[in-house]
Amino acid sequence: MEKQFDVIIMGGGAAGLYGALNLDKRLRVLVLTKQSETLSNSSLAQGGIAAVTDTKNDSVQKHINDTLVAGGFRNDRRAVEILTTEGPADVMNLAKLGVDFDLNEDGTPNLTLEGGHTRPRILHHKDCTGKAIVDALLVKVHERENITLLSDAVVCELKKTEHTFHALVLLPSGEQVTLHSRFFIIASGGIGRVYEYTTNSAIATGDGITLAYRMGVPIKNLHFVQFHPTAFANRKTRESFLISESVRGEGAYLLNCHGNRFMHEYDERLELAPRDVVSRSIMEEAKRTGSDHFYLDITYKDPDFIRNRFPLIYENLKKEGIDMTTDRIPVFPCQHYLMGGIQVDSDSQTTIPGLFACGECSHTGVHGANRLASNSLLEAVVFSRRAASVINEQALRTPAQFDDFEFSPVLPERELPHGFRTEIRAIMQHAYFVAPDFAAAKEGVKRVEEIKNELDRPGYHLTRDYVEARSLAYVAYIILKELIEE
Ligand SMILES: Cc1cc2nc3c(=O)[nH]c(=O)nc-3n(C[C@H](O)[C@H](O)[C@H](O)COP(=O)(O)OP(=O)(O)OC[C@H]3O[C@@H](n4cnc5c(N)ncnc54)[C@H](O)[C@@H]3O)c2cc1C
After folding, report:
1. For ligand 1, atom 4: residue with the closest CA
2. For a FRET experiment, which of 65, 195, 340, 387 has its CA 20 to 30 Å from that of 238?
3. Where is the FAD-dependent oxidoreductase 2 FAD-binding domain (predicted)?
């Protein structure tokens, strides 16, 4: 296989794919995905992508304000301005690339409302917007002759020499190869799998964040973790199915164990307060009532409307024996999103020249302490396009040069011990769920550090499981350390 590329992109979610498509066609690009090409948080996104397309009833300034309010004003204002002013063009470009956003009869985008937005501005494809975006971008990526997409290929190590990035990649065959590139984009997604209960897909183990950290790149605000208030509370599986914010956006009520609405006791924005507020209110209400049973109720709406607007959620709930047109939906908060990540500038550049990070693994500062709903797909496309634009300019201006370097193959001396991942998840769930427990965090960080140091010893059999366990140890360590030092 070819081993030298202009750009290697670690990740084939919205950020990786859109970034690849914005790179100049003269550049040789490799996109790597850890498992199948459609397994990512992007593919799971339901609600939609936020952008101001209705300038009569909405404005960029309002989108900026909503983003800042949701983020507790801890956002980077310049990044927010970039996101909101450039976002509409990228969203229109997604439509040109084949994303089938739902339209009104007059051909304008059908806009929905979600928590924290003061205007309806969410473009969507029913309740499976992420899949619609990923599927459309994959078609275009496969059409492009300069882009190679390799699935089931795990980036295990990353190193930079003077002119070149070298990635140790585990191929589906089990073979370990060193691949080289002039530019490297980390677009490896979030960290949800460090928790016992998360809405995130199996790939979300923070591998890219770990590699960047090990290279000395600053990581910022990794403890800014978002807990979504309304994941489906099936209490059986670790991957909790999300009941999108847009269900509340379309009018669903949040009820306590007695079947009563309670958000008026906590926030005047009621069910549509930002996610952190609703999650905290649920935890308070659970203490007050002594019960962790909560429900969403949208049964008062027309059943045909519900089935047509939320086909994915409807079908998933049906499989669990719940008909959302007649039954209340059991919900509870769940880990959902990471606001912090690899520190980047407004062009997605890290402190290492040629190394970029975009999407959920990055920290652009747009989200502050709490992401506004549907701003993350937007961040993924806006900032990956900006990364591509800088790379295009730099790559075409300078001749390609590749340094020699090969990772030595790992000769396995020991296997991954059983139970590390479970232990890390239990520590995180205990130390930091919705609100931190500082005593548990102080205690937990010691054990997590031990596990991290153990997995850093050379000689572990190089498998996806090993790489992911090591990443989870790093991610948990950084989060807990930030928490106790804050
Ligand atoms: C259930 C759910 C619903 C959501 N709904 C919305 C929504 O409605 N609107 C919104 O804006 N946001 C939503 N989000 C958040 C949003 O989907 C994500 O933040 C965003 O899609 C992240 O995109 P990404 O490209 O950064 O990462 P991902 O889409 O997660 O892609 C990561 C990629 O990195 C690859 N990768 C990881 N590690 C390695 C490795 N070691 N080697 C090789 N490849 C690797 C993976 O294989 C994958 O291809 C939702 C998230 C979830 C989980």
Report:
1. 45
2. 340
3. 6-377
Does domain 232-331 fall under CATH 3.90.700.10? My reply is yes
Separation of CA 8 and ligand 1 centre (Å)? 18
User: What are the phi and psi torsion angles at 310 (to 5°)?
Assistant: -130, 60
How many whole angstroms from 262 Cα to the centroid of ligand 1? Answer: 32
Cα distances (Å, whole numbers) of residue 448 to 13, 39, 54: 29, 28, 48
CATH 3.90.79.10 fits 4-224+339-397, yes or no: no
State pLDDT tens for residues 283-298.
Answer: 999 999 999 999 999 9
Instruction: Give the mean pLDDT of 436-453.
Output: 97
Q: Is 275 an annotated catalytic residue? A: yes
**Six-digit token string for 150:** 């390799």
Long-range contacts of 259-266 (CB under 8 A, 24+ apart): 259/295, 259/328
- Domain residue spans of the chain: 4-224+339-397, 232-331, 420-485
Judge if the beta carbon of residue 348 lies within 6 A of ligand 1: no
CB 483 within 8 A of CB 441: yes
* Residues pairing with 149 in the sheet: 31
383 and 15 Cβ atoms separated by less than 8 Å:
yes
Q: pLDDT digits over 172-210, tens only?
A: 999 999 999 999 999 999 999 999 989 999 999 999 999
Residue to mutate, 114, 148, 203, 475, ligand 1, most ligand atoms under 8 Å from C-beta: 203
- Rounded distance from Cα 95 to ligand 1 centre (Å): 20
- Please work out whether the CB of residue 230 comes within 6 Å of at least one atom of ligand 1: no
Residues 462-475: pLDDT tens digits? 999 999 999 999 99
CA 115 to the chain's CA centroid: 18
Which atom from ligand 1 is nearest to the alpha carbon of 47? 8
The ligand 1 atom at the shortest distance from the C-alpha of residue 471 is: 41
Catalytic residue among 28, 121, 182, 275: 275
What 8-state DSSP symbol labels residue 152?
S
Atom of ligand 1 nearest to the CA of 154: 42
| Residue of 334, 341, 337 whose CA lies nearest to 374 | 337
User: What architecture (CATH level 2) is domain 420-485?
Assistant: Up-down Bundle (1.20)
| CA terminus-to-terminus distance, the chain | 47
- What does the block give as tokens for 213? 């950290």
